[in-house]
Amino acid sequence: MQEKGSISIHTENIFPVIKKFLYSDNEIFLRELVSNAVDASQKIKRLSSLGQYQGEVGDLLVDVKVDKEAKTITISDNGIGMTAEEIKKYINQIAFSGATEFMEKFKEANDANEIIGRFGLGFYSAFMVADKVEIDSLSYQEGAEPAHWTCDGSTSYEISEGTRTTRGTDIILHINEDAEEFLEESRIQTILDKYCKFLPVPIRFGTKSTQEEDGEDEEGKPKYKTVEVDNIINNTSPAWTKSPSELTDEDYLAFYRELYPYPMDEPLFWIHLNVDYPFNLTGILYFPKIKNELEVQRNKIKLYSRQVFITDEVKDIVPEFLMLLHGVIDSPDIPLNVSRSFLQADSNVKKINNYITKKVADKLQEIFKSDRKGFEEKWNDIGLFIKYGMLSDEKFAEKANEFCLLKNTQGESYTMKEYYEKVKDIQVDKDGNIVYLYTHDVAQQDSFIAGATAKGYDVLVLDGPLDTHMTSYLEQKGGEKIQLKRVDADVIDKLIQKDEKIELTLSEDESKKATEVFEKAISRADMKVEVDALHAEDLPVSVTLDEFMRRMKEMAKTGGGMGFYGSLPDNYKVTVNGNHPLVKRIVESSDEEGAKLAKQAFDLALLSRGLLTGSELTSFVKRSVEMI
């Protein structure tokens, strides 16, 4: 048997097009060909289970071999095989509509996955790296004859009698000069590890050395010898393909270590995904300990299709905030060859996105309800993730409002609803606004916190990278008439103003003199002095930064769209407590003594805020020693 013919396509330039447009992703040829071999292996197993194949299936295996001298890569399987007619049907007819449409649509393309997926060019990806490709195949069908197909990269092919004597297919690639990197075993091993690590049929790539016991030495201790064994690169039954009832906690942790063999903290908990309607999806998502560097955590979720690795860039499949999770998603409803434009438009992808969000929210709610103490202990590790979700995904936020925790300076935890109930009758101002006080630095703002707690007020700790945005979220979603004010944004009586009227003990002239003394002692354009009537036991001088301006500037720093505010300088308010004995003393002192005391009181206020540094701090220390 020998036959020559032309591949049924509508352009003479198909192979140059493949090489040109797909070159940047040429390593996927191996994924495509190994996946085809696995499919062929599974088909024979399926036919046997249906009784349509009576022979011995045997141990299914896909073999990958590199012959550096002959410059070939061979992918072999003992699957279903093909007859000459099947080769002509499945290999020689490339399914796309026309050269004009092809060239027009992809003249700017550089996405190999999109072109291969759209036009069924999986097998032809071999020509990205090969000048000539051969197929040697023997079908499972009784009486079938072996068939051999060869093509040199033109539209001409040749079919003749093959040499294979056992069921299955060999694909032989004659590697071209530009792709000789793929004749290095380490390169092939890396690609197989990347794309084929969890395929359902064993993939063998040569052999590897291992140690096995070889009797005992004179002291009765076991001896070992080095032996060569098959190098099976994949785990054919990864954890996500099993039922949760089959797996222990150790199984989940072992799989996590298999996914991420480099040192990582163990995950806090995980979700096993398993749905078959209205789409098919399996997978395991792990909750890592979320550090405060959001970018470091990303791109740890791997996307598979029928256990074939596709990509670890899954931002179109999972919501933005879930990019912080680790693990695996596998769905046959996402094509093996995907492109970004496909993902963005595909309805199944949108459904999967919503499903995963719901499952994550449900899991967190379940843990919170069943083990609140444990949930609170994990909050420092998962709080950033939950807040990120609330700020970026409305559906997630609806559920997360029930388990998002707020922590105060006493280390106590409250849900948003619980905290509202805690402070709504105490921290209410004269206009009926419920004021949440918070600190972003407990140590630095200790004096302000002490002033608030002395009044019986509670102070939240909001010190994370997203908490500037979280303050606005709480004002909108936390309850009616809520305002958040950082505890150092003003003196405490101004942060939560009551109907109480405090009289200023200084006369008008004394108040004016106090203002002039402090302005002269401070002499800074970014500090505005204001004498106010406060309780005598409050601090004599406080330095504060307006809540609104500070919040806008912080949002500008974190990319909150407030760039105008980010360019403005800081402007502080210096509140002088006109009812404090020290201020009375400053007013009644000589100009020199008053200025010295005013400067000392102001520096103490700066020191309490961590704003006294450099030569100013040195002068303050020296002055303090002199005044003792």
From TrEMBL:
* InterPro entries on file: HATPase_C_sf, HATPase_dom, HSP90_C, Hsp90_fam, Hsp90_N, Ribosomal_Su5_D2-typ_SF
- SMART domains, sorted: HATPase_c
Alphabetically ordered keywords of this record: ATP-binding, Chaperone, Cytoplasm, Nucleotide-binding, Stress response
Give the Histidine kinase/HSP90-like ATPase domain ranges: 25-179
Per the record, the domain of life is Bacteria
- Which family does the entry's similarity section mention? Belongs to the heat shock protein 90 family.
Q: What is this protein called?
A: Chaperone protein HtpG
- Species of origin reads Sphingobacterium hungaricum
